[in-house]
TrEMBL record:
Gene3D superfamilies hit by this protein: YVTN repeat-like/Quinoprotein amine dehydrogenase
InterPro entries found in the cross-reference section: Cycloisomerase_2, Lactonase_7-beta_prop, WD40/YVTN_repeat-like_dom_sf
Originating organism: Lacticaseibacillus thailandensis DSM 22698 = JCM 13996
Identification of the protein by name: 6-phosphogluconolactonase
Origin superkingdom: Bacteria
Family according to the record: Belongs to the cycloisomerase 2 family.
Length: 346
C-alpha cells in the first residue's frame, strides 16, 4: 500500500449447508487494497441449513431448515448478531430469499414444495407469514415432475418475478402492502430449459434468464408496463468442446450493465459475457473456479472483485475484475468455506 492510499474493507456473508462440516452463516472481510479475503469465521451457528441470505441494513433474512419444516429466520446483525425469530412451515426449506424494503416484505422460493412464501417484516425486524402460494406445472425432464420455484425477487418496477424450474415458467406478480400476490403474466421457456435465476440490466429494458437444466442464458425483452417478457437470443454457458454433465447456477451483472457473469457446476467455471449497447451478449471468457460445484458467485460493492464458492470442495476463490474488459484473474484461492453455497456482500 502506497502512502496516502486508503484500505477498503468490505463485509461478506457466506450461507451454506450444515450437513457435514458447515457451521451455518460465516462472515469474512475483503481487503480491496491487499486483494485478499480473510478466512471466513462462523457468525450464526444456531440456524440449520442457511443456504441463501438477504441483508437489509442491520437485519439479515436467511433460509432455514427444521425437523420436517422449513422457512425463513430473521437475524439482527447489530451488536452481537442474534436470531430475532423464525417462521417454519411444514415441508422442506426454501432455496432463495429476498427482501422488499419498500413494502417491508420478505419473499422465499420453496423449490421442493413448489411454493412462494411471503412474510411481513415487523417493527423489530422479525417476520410473520403473510401468504403462502402454491404453484403448479411440470416439464419434460426428470427433474421437472412438478413445480420447483427457485427464485423470488423484484423486477426494476417493483413487481415480484418468480422462476419455476419445474414448470419452465417465469411469472410476474403484483404485490400489495399486506403481502398478497396476484399473477400478471407468464413467460414459457423452451421445454427443459429449467429457469433458475434472473437478473435485469440496470438501464435497458432487458433481462437475463439462466437455465439450470439446459446450461443456457436467455436474453429477454422486459415490458414494465405489461409485466411481460419476450424472447431474444439463447446461448450456451459452456465452451463448445465441453460435453460433460453441467448445471448452470448463478447469474450476476455488473453495475454499469456492460458485463454478465454466470457459474457452471460440472464444468466448474465462470462464464464472462460482454453486453453490447442493445443488451445482447457475447461470451468472452471461461475461467476455472478452482474447486467443485460453484453454486454461487457475486460481485463486491466496488465492482473490482468477484467471489465464487464451491459447494463440493468446501473452498472459495477470489478474482480481480477488469472493469474495461470484464475479464477475471484469480488473486486468491483455496479459501476455506465449508459447505458454502451463497455469497452476500453487506
Amino acid at each position: 500500500m502506497t502512502k496516502g492510499e486508503i484500505t477498503m474493507q468490505e463485509t461478506v456473508y457466506l450461507g451454506g449447508y450444515t450437513r457435514s462440516n458447515g457451521k451455518g452463516i460465516y462472515r469474512a472481510v475483503l481487503d480491496t487494497t491487499k486483494q485478499q479475503l480473510s478466512t471466513p469465521t462462523p457468525l450464526i451457528t444456531t440456524v440449520s441449513g442457511p443456504t441463501y441470505l438477504a441483508v437489509n441494513g442491520d437485519k439479515m433474512y436467511a433460509v432455514a431448515a427444521g425437523d420436517g419444516t422449513g422457512g425463513v429466520v430473521a437475524i439482527d446483525l447489530a451488536g452481537t448478531p442474534h436470531v430475532i425469530n423464525s417462521v417454519l412451515l411444514p415441508g422442506t426449506s426454501p432455496a432463495y430469499v429476498a427482501v422488499d424494503a419498500q413494502r417491508r416484505l420478505v419473499y422465499a422460493a420453496n423449490y421442493h414444495m413448489g411454493r412462494i412464501d411471503v412474510f411481513v417484516i415487523r417493527d423489530d425486524g422479525g417476520i410473520a407469514l403473510a401468504s403462502s402460494n402454491q404453484c403448479t406445472g411440470s416439464g419434460p425432464r426428470p427433474e421437472q415432475e412438478a413445480s420447483h420455484v427457485h427464485y423470488t425477487n423484484l423486477t426494476p418496477d417493483g413487481r415480484l418475478v418468480v422462476c419455476d424450474l419445474g414448470a419452465d415458467a417465469v411469472t410476474t406478480y403484483d404485490v400489495d402492502a399486506a403481502g398478497q400476490i396476484r399473477p400478471v403474466a407468464t413467460f414459457a421457456t423452451a421445454p427443459g430449459f429449467g429457469p433458475r435465476h434472473i437478473t435485469f440490466h440496470p438501464t435497458l429494458p432487458v433481462a437475463y434468464l439462466l437455465g439450470e437444466l439446459a446450461s443456457e442464458l436467455q436474453v429477454l425483452d422486459y415490458d414494465a408496463a405489461a409485466g411481460t417478457f419476450a424472447a431474444r437470443e439463447r446461448l450456451s454457458t459452456l465452451p463448445p468442446d465441453w460435453h460433460g454433465q453441467n448445471g448452470a447456477a448463478a447469474v450476476r451483472i455488473s453495475a454499469d450493465g456492460r458485463f454478465l457473469y454466470t457459474s457452471n457446476r460440472g464444468h466448474n467455471s465462470i462464464t464472462v459475457w460482454a453486453i453490447d449497447a442493445g443488451g445482447d451478449v457475447t461470451p468472452v471468457q471461461h475461467i476455472t473456479t478452482a474447486g467443485e460445484f460453484p453454486r454461487d458467485i457475486n460481485l463486491d460493492p466496488s465492482g473490482q472483485f468477484v467471489l465464487a464458492v464451491n459447494q463440493n470442495s468446501d473452498n472459495a476463490t477470489l478474482y480481480r475484475r477488469d472493469a474495461e474488459t470484464g475479464l477475471l484473474t484469480i488473486v486468491q484461492q483455496d479459501i476455506v468455506a465449508p459447505e458454502a453455497v451463497n455469497v452476500t456482500f453487506a
